[in-house]
Design goal:
- The protein contains ten helices and seven strands.
- By secondary structure, the protein is of the alpha/beta class.
- Strands 1, 2, 3, 4, 5, 6 and 7 form a seven-stranded mixed sheet that branches.
- 29% of the residues are buried.
Amino acid sequence: DLYKLTDVLEADRNRPVVTVANHESTVDDPVIWGIMPRRLRWRPEYMRWTLGARELLYMNPVMNAFFALGQTIPTVRGDGIYQLAVEIGLRKLNENKWVHVFPEARVNQEAQLLRFKWGVSRMIMEAERTPIVVPMYFSGMKAVMPLRQNVPVPRPNPFKSTLYVKVGNAMDFTRLIEEWRVSRASLAPEKAALLDREVRIAIAELLWDSVNDLKAESAAKVQALTEIYDK
């Protein structure tokens, strides 16, 4: 169902695109986007922008250049939703670009998704044109790059690793954002700030629910595939 994303990207659209996904390993981004169709893979206009932890990615001049060319925005974890990385993400959305976010904000290989951070909510709310949002779920990546291993290198095994990507239906927050803007226009600053917070929480929870639903669907699909291969 990758077509649910590629159809959105290739459409004659006047709105930016935001994708959100769980974060199973440090190689999620390069491996998963490697499955994009060849017709899109080498075209800069279809390349995603993404946010990545500055302390892990921007460590020396070589890595700085590599990740900058890879359209990765350095993010300072803990600096909140008004940091420069979120501002740059907003700027890219206002240029009608595609921005991918891992809202868990760190690698999570546990059974339960972490609470989604609100930076993505702010980008969706404050973009000049409300983005088309596509949820995704990645499974199998933790087997390729476990968190706790002596040598932190990928170890793909085509005979033991099942990598699966589930893409959900596009989400449209246009009505919610329009209602939020109308409501806050008549509020005092303190009450407007409280409303902003409520809407950010609501969007993050809706995104979490969508990815979590994809997680359940993915588990069922992977189980079915495993049973087929084991026969």
